[in-house]
Amino acid sequence: MTPLNAVADRISLTEGVSRDSASGMLDALQRMAPLVRERRGSFDQLRRLPDDVFETLADAGLFRLWLPRAIGGPELSPFEFMSIVEAASALDGSIGWLVGNGGGMSRVGGYVGKAVARDWFSDRHAFVAAATGAVGTATRVAGGYRVAGRWPFGSGAHHASLFMVLAAEAPEAPRLCCHVGRNDVTILDNWHVSGLRGTGSCDFELRDVFVPEAHVHPFLDLTPTDPGMVYRMPPVSVFAWTISAVPLGIAGGAIAAFIELARHKGLGGTGLLRDREPVQAAVGRADAMLRAARAFLVDAMTELMAGTDAGGERLLQARAAFRTAATHAAESAASIVDMLAASAGSVSIFETCPLERAARDVRAAARHVALSSNNYVVRGRVALGLDPGTARF
Questions:
Q1: How many CA atoms lie within 13 A of 356 on its CB side?
Q2: Distances, alpha carbon 309 to alpha carbons 44, 224, 250, in Å
Q3: Along the 393 residues of the chain, how does pLDDT read in single tens digits?
Q4: 191 is in which domain, residue-wise?
Q5: Residues β-bridged to residue 210
Q6: Domain count, the chain
Q7: What CATH number corresponds to the domain at position 24?
Q8: Is 141 a domain residue?
Q9: Of 91, 103, 102, nearest to 30 (Cα)?
Q10: Cα separation of 188 and 134, whole Å?
């Protein structure tokens, strides 16, 4: 069974399948597999997705996963979202990263007025590139703000129609999410990296750009314009969810690739890889690690949703536990890929082997700040009755 089929089996919908349903999107990813195999080499050369691959993803609705239902979006549940991102990441790490980021950022439609959101997402190819790794300057003027700055890690920047940046009126002032159009942004082509090369996560900058008040909302203490759960959950936690499934999906794809390799790779007249007990054990262990990491992540999200409704101490503890689940997922995924690559032997260092790309991509994904090992410190502090020790909580 392929990773995409395995994910599809976990989704049960009572409504008919449409291209904006989770099942319809999984079907679209399945159909995309030949195109991805054909074009994968250009991901590294271009350092972004080729236009035809991006457009195919957009046509399938994969960049509007959390667009509110009230304005025509699918507004998937967190668990449907996770399954889509896992499947996309099993297909290719860069694709999964952009589906997680782009599909996740469509939730901005639940933070601004409906008329603004409809305008932003009227084109099915709309994509929101977001960067929170720096804070620009926001100067209040009549009707809005003048915003300037430079931000790193603008995943999908080359195809983005909208950019979300953090800015503040003063160093200690609350951060604002400011949304600007593609024509207001200068992209800096500096994405020369080892993993997730196809994401085009370049730096970009704004130079004294006017942002209307209606295109601005708080970063942390925001008031959603839609009542859906995903818009009410803590924004930092929601962001971590959008990327935490990517390493798991990459690891799932690596397991499938290793199984296929073990079925056909010989060992110099001594049989196939799959006939060796250490290889059998590696597959069994990898499967257990992946299922355990996924179960922890699902459990943590379930409690986060309950905590969002309950508030207070329950939400505090849920947010802290969720951070450790996200980090644990990334660490487990990286360990799975490393173990399988070691079991495969020297073939895993060749670019023609899917494990080579999986190893690069999973390590790049796991190094994101939202998946940092410091999350264990945060969880420990909260469990010990201390403050979280970070403003971004």
A1: 11
A2: 44, 14, 32
A3: 455 555 444 433 323 334 568 999 999 999 999 999 999 999 999 999 999 999 999 999 999 999 999 999 999 999 999 999 999 999 999 999 999 999 999 999 999 999 999 999 999 999 999 999 999 999 999 999 999 999 999 999 999 999 999 999 999 999 999 999 999 999 999 999 999 999 999 999 999 999 999 999 999 989 999 999 999 999 999 999 999 999 999 999 999 999 999 998 876 556 898 989 999 999 999 999 999 999 999 999 999 999 999 999 999 999 999 999 999 999 999 999 999 999 999 999 999 999 999 999 999 999 999 999 999 999 999 999 999 998 777
A4: 128-218
A5: 146
A6: 3
A7: 1.10.540.10
A8: yes
A9: 91
A10: 15
Q: Percentage helix, strand, coil, to 5, in the chain?
A: 60, 15, 25
Residue whose C-alpha is closest to residue 123's, from 152, 91, 159: 159
Global pTM?
A: 0.93
Using DSSP bridges, classify how beta strands 128-141 and 162-168 pair: parallel, antiparallel or unpaired: parallel
What's the CATH number where 141 sits? 2.40.110.10
Q: Note whether 131 and 166 are within 8 A (CB).
A: yes
Which region, left, alpha or beta, applies to residue 75 given φ > 0 means left and ψ of -120 to 50 means alpha?
A: left
Residue linked to tokens 């002032």: 173
**Which of residues 120, 144, 175 is at a domain's end?**
120
Helix residue ranges per DSSP H, the chain: 3-9, 22-46, 51-59, 78-91, 93-105, 114-120, 229-232, 235-264, 277-310, 312-344, 354-366, 374-383
